[in-house]
């Protein structure tokens, strides 16, 4: 069960990460990256970030690029939230495939 502090930090990180990805994807036309959910560990040292990428065909290659630039993303988030957080957590990025799952269920029901 997550504490109130974990939830607040997760919401803050989700908001800031979405702004970072929005500014970076403006250069790539036709690509949308949204931050589905952020889960912060109890010691606030690790944040698991679930990303929803559209179109889903580009998902794995974009996820690899994001993982390769995780330190740069952490630095940028650190610059943005340096007055709210003392320690910026390490980011672990995962692909959120819930939209693909929902689409598959819809196709099966038709």
Explain what this protein looks like in three dimensions.
With 110 residues, the chain is an alpha+beta fold. It has one domain (4-109): 2-Layer Sandwich (GMP Synthetase, Chain A, domain 3), CATH 3.30.300.20. 50% of the residues lie in helices and 22% in strands. It contains four helices and three strands, in the order H-E-E-H-H-E-H. The protein has helices at residues 4-25, 59-68, 70-80, 98-109; strands at 32-40, 46-54, 90-95. It has a three-stranded mixed β-sheet with strand order 1-2-3. Strand 1 (32-40) and strand 2 form a beta hairpin. It starts with a helix and ends with a helix. The mean pLDDT is 90.
Output the keywords.
single chain, GMP Synthetase, Chain A, domain 3, 50% helix, globular
Q: Beta-sheet strand percentage?
A: 15-25%
CATH topology: GMP Synthetase, Chain A, domain 3
**Oligomer designation:** single chain
CATH class: Alpha Beta
Radius of gyration: 15 Å
Major β-sheet, in short? 3 strands, mixed
- Name the strands of the widest sheet in spatial order: 1-2-3
- H/I helix tally: 4
Parts with pLDDT < 50 across at least 5 consecutive residues: none
Q: How would you sum up the global shape?
A: globular
Instruction: Report the helical percentage.
Output: 40-55%
CATH architecture: 2-Layer Sandwich
- Structure class: alpha+beta
Order of helices and strands: HEEHHEH
CATH H-level superfamily: K homology (KH) domain
Write the layout of secondary structure elements.
Elements: H1 4-25, E1 32-40, E2 46-54, H2 59-68, H3 70-80, E3 90-95, H4 98-109
Parallel strand pairs: 2-3
Antiparallel strand pairs: 1-2
Helix pairs in contact: 1-3
């Amino acid at each position: 069960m997550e504490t109130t502090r974990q939830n607040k930090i997760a919401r803050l990180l989700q908001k800031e990460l979405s702004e970072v990805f929005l500014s970076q994807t403006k250069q790539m036309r036709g690509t949308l990256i949204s931050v589905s959910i952020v889960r912060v560990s109890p010691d606030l040292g690790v944040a698991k970030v679930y990303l929803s990428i559209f179109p889903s065909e580009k998902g794995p290659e974009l996820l690899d690029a994001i993982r390769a630039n995780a330190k740069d993303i952490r630095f940028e988030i650190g610059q943005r939230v340096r007055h709210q957080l003392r320690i910026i957590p390490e980011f672990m990025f995962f692909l959120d495939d819930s939209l693909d799952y929902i689409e598959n269920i819809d196709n099966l029901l038709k």
